[in-house]
Structure formats: structure tokens, C-alpha cells
Amino acid sequence: MDKIIIHLICPDQMGIISRLTSILYKSKNNVLSIQQYIDKEKKKFYIRLAVSVNSQSKFPRDKLLGLNRQLKGKMDLFDPNKKINVAILGTKESEPIYDLLIKNKSSELKCDFPAIISNHNDLSDIAKQFDIDFYKINDNTELLQILKKKHIDLIVLARYMQIIPDNIIKLFKNNIINIHHGFLPAFKGAKPYHQAYSRGVKIVGATAHYATNKLDEGPIIFQDTIQINHKNSISDIIQLGREIEKSVLSKAVKAHLDYKIIVHNKKTIIFD
């Protein structure tokens, strides 16, 4: 391990950064970057540190965790060089899946994709093309078995048109990323873009968020919109919506893989 990412959430108080960096300096580990945020309303302090680890000395994990206890905080340490296993769940739409896999091949998304899982067979050709195991499931018991078998760390719902059960939501808390046409709140259910078109909306968009047991209400990671008008056909709107969904989803996955997201309760802090 030549680099480590540190996340810390704690009550806001004086001297947090100096105490953190002092421990790292004394152990001869170099701080590469510091990003912080203070929620003044909740009096919460958030920080992300990227640290170059000195291979000649022991990393001061115990001292950092001791400081975390003193600060009454929640600290996590991550190895950014270790690739995590990501499962893609989809139904029939291939565009967001292709986008993720192409970005992975170009090293923009640094992870392993050991499985594509679906309740249909439509996506099997994509899996074959990228030499990924494909699983067609009939129920959520099969889904859970595959996730465990493949040692999955993160689940990406790439237009997966099924409800994820509570037991999997709980097991993968803040590790299931979903894409949703979130700027169409009045148009839930089937064919949201058709509903929007019939109502003459002037904006379409998408939201990437962590999945919870409350449908489409999890912590938001990224959002984007594009303006439309009466000249846009339903085909235009669908394509524009899909482009935004694809972009927002890949940005959310990248932020998660780069450990740039801190989740606290229903709120996300996204560092640059």
C-alpha cells in the first residue's frame, strides 16, 4: 500500500486538522491533499485526506483511531489501489452498461466487473463481448447468492427495473448506486418520458443516488438536467434523458470508487 484515503466525520471543534496532520508528520507519512467541509447548521466536520504512505515506517492506524475516539467521530481508511468488485444489474437497456464497461477498459473507472446480472437474457451479449460472467436470475434469493459468490463490494443498478429487497439493501448499505429520472417527480411509474412529453415539460434530468428501502429517496450523489421545448419530439426527449442518465451514473460510480463521497444520515458530501 503506497497511498491511503482517510475519511472523518466528527463534531466540529478546534484543532482537528493539526492533530491529524501531526500524527501523520511524526510517522513520516506525507499528506497529498486535504479537503474539508463544515456543516454549520449541524455543527459537523467532514474531512478527506489523501496520504502517501512511508514504506519504511509503520502506518499510525492505531493513533489515528485513538484520535477518532477522542473526537467522538467516525473514521474510515481506504486503500485506493485495491480494486473492488462491482456487479452491474440491468434489465434491457444496454447504453449505461456499455458506458461503464468502456470507461473501465480505459481505466477511468478503476474496479473489477465480475458479473452482469439481469432478469432477462437481453444483456448476455454485452457480458460475452467484455468477457464478464452473465447471470439471468428468477428471484432475489438467486441474486444474493451470486453477490456473495462473486464477493461483490458495490452494486450498480443500470436501469434495473426490479425492486431490491430490504435484506440486500441492508447488507450493501451505501454500496448500491441507482440511476433515476429524478427531475420528473410527477411522472412516476411506466414511461415517464412519455408522460413528460404529454405535459409539455421544459426540462429533463437524472439523479444518481444510493438505494435505500424507500424507493428513490436515498442519499443523492449526482444530478444533471437539460432544457427542452415544444420542438423536441418524444424520441428526442428519451435520447436526451438517456444521455444524462448515462453521464450521471458513471460520475457517481467514479466518485464512489475514488472514495470522494462521505455519507452521513441522508446527506452526501462529494469532494472534488
Would you kindly provide a written description of the structure presented here, covering whatever features stand out?
The strands form 3 sheets. Strands 7-6-5-8-9-10-11 form a 7-stranded mixed sheet, with helices on both faces. Strands 2-3-1-4 form a 4-stranded antiparallel sheet, with helices on one face. A two-stranded antiparallel ribbon has the order 12-13. The mean pLDDT is 91. Helix 1 (16-26) runs antiparallel to helix 2 and helix 3 packs parallel to helix 8. With 272 residues, it is an alpha/beta fold. The chain is globular, with a radius of gyration of 21 Å. Helices cover 32% and strands 31% of the residues. The protein has helices at residues 16-26, 61-71, 95-105, 124-129, 140-149, 166-171, 192-199, 234-257, and strands at residues 3-11, 30-39, 44-52, 74-78, 85-90, 112-118, 133-136, 154-157, 176-180, 203-210, 220-227, 261-264, 267-270.
Sheet with most strands: strand arrangement: 7-6-5-8-9-10-11
Q: Which regions contain 5 or more consecutive residues with pLDDT less than 50?
A: none
Class inferred from helices and paired strands: alpha/beta
Number of strands: 13
Overall pLDDT score: 91
What Rg is obtained from the alpha carbons, in whole angstroms? 21 Å
